[in-house]
Design goal:
The complex is a heterodimer of chains A (113) and B (113). Chain A has 113 residues and is mainly β. Chain A contains no helices and 12 strands. In chain B, strands 2, 4, 5, 6, 9, 10 and 11 form a 7-stranded mixed sheet that branches. Classes of the chains: A mainly beta (113), B mainly beta (113).
């Protein structure tokens, strides 16, 4: 069975600081993608970053970067220079083998002024 | 560029009433389309996906159904709503294929009383 686990229900970080959100996953597929989505109070899901499993290089998007550890099945998200607008729920998701995404239960991040 | 629309944005319905939620995508052809439900404070659950007109796959047995009458239109329906149908419903699209990024609409908040 494919699973995605986010073990941090809530986190907080001071504005301008760095924070890392954790995600572990399990799949028997060799070809898969991993995603981080952000859900602000408006509740629309917004893609933050995507990582293809066959790529060894960690994906980056401006202040967002991932630490992809394939052997450990770990996929953490690092947010640098945190901004108040980063306050949101963050979901880790796995896509492998089918059209079905498996989502984690989310981490609620609060950026403090 | 591609955009995805959902309506209504908010809906309050009595138990036993019918339901129709609509999702349309602009700026792309032959998309994969998805319906998700998000219960309060929880992750996303895939309800239905479609790879073409009239082609619907159901992930979770329930009193909901989906239809795709046009290439870029996806409808979620129910003949009789249950209290447990309350939640936040998200439509998403992706480029035709398996491991593709999904892009989400703004969602519909459904409250069944």
């Amino acid at each position: 069975a494919q699973t995605v686990t986010q073990s941090q229900p809530e986190m907080s970080v001071q504005e301008a600081e760095t924070v890392t959100l954790s995600c572990t996953y399990d799949t028997s597929e060799n070809n898969y993608y991993l995603f981080w989505y952000k859900q602000p109070p408006s509740r629309q899901m917004i893609l933050v970053i995507r990582q293809e499993a066959y790529k060894q290089q960690n994906a980056t998007e401006n202040r967002f970067s991932v630490n992809f550890q394939k052997a450990a099945k770990s996929f953490s998200l690092k947010i640098s220079d945190s901004q108040l607008g980063d306050t949101a729920m963050y979901f880790c998701a796995l896509a492998s083998g089918t059209y079905k995404y498996i989502f984690g239960t989310g981490t609620r991040l609060k950026v403090l002024a | 560029s591609q955009t995805i629309h959902q309506w209504p944005a908010t809906l309050v319905q009595p138990v036993g009433s019918p339901l129709s939620l609509e999702c349309t995508v602009e700026g792309t052809s032959n998309p994969n389309l998805y319906w998700y439900r998000q219960a309060a404070g929880r992750g996303l659950q895939l309800l239905f996906y479609s790879v073409g007109i009239g082609q619907i796959s159901s992930e979770v047995p329930q009193n909901l159904s989906a239809s795709r009458p046009q290439d870029r239109q996806f409808i979620l329906s129910s003949k009789k709503l249950l209290l447990s149908d309350s939640g936040f419903y998200l439509c998403a699209w992706s480029v035709l294929g398996g491991l593709e990024t999904q892009y989400f609409g703004p969602g519909t908040r459904l409250l069944v009383l």
